[in-house]
Specification:
This protein has one domain. The chain is mainly beta and 130 residues long. The protein is 13% helix and 34% strand. The chain has a 5-stranded antiparallel β-sheet with strand order 4-3-2-1-5, with helices on one face. The chain has 2 helices and 5 strands, in the order ββββαβα.
């Protein structure tokens, strides 16, 4: 990985409960999300932040070759300085309880610096929620 790219690692995830929809967070203006994740972003010269990101599973009409449930897309995000602040804002803005967060450690950055959200599919599928 080239040093000029940010590196993203998803460190927490939670399925957005139906009773929290439609999501009315000030920073979210798109379709209802399926998942909320916290991604730890690191970069050059000690750069570090934590991003709350809403994800949506886009179910294909017919996908017999991949054997997957769908494709994951990010539909909105907001950045915070610490994990503690990100979790507190998810609680305040959306209603996610602190105990709902599932820990994980999924690197989502490709070698070229692009993000591959589909790397989260095995975790979501394992939870029985995709």
């Amino acid at each position: 990985m080239n040093n000029e790219h940010l590196r993203g690692t998803v460190i927490r995830w939670v399925r957005v409960r139906e009773n929290l929809k439609p999501v009315k967070a000030y920073w979210h203006r798109r379709s209802d999300p399926d998942w909320l994740v916290i991604t730890h972003l690191t970069g050059q010269k000690g750069y570090e932040s934590f991003s709350l990101q809403f994800l949506k599973v886009m179910t294909p009409v017919c996908d017999t070759t991949a054997g997957r449930s769908g494709k994951i897309v990010q539909i909105s995000e907001v950045f915070y300085e610490t994990l503690r602040i990100a979790k507190a804002q998810a609680h305040a803005d959306i209603g996610i309880e602190y105990v709902e967060w599932e820990p994980c450690n999924v690197e989502i950055t490709n070698e070229d610096g692009s993000i591959d959200w589909d790397r989260m599919l095995p975790i979501f599928e394992h939870s029985g929620c995709v």
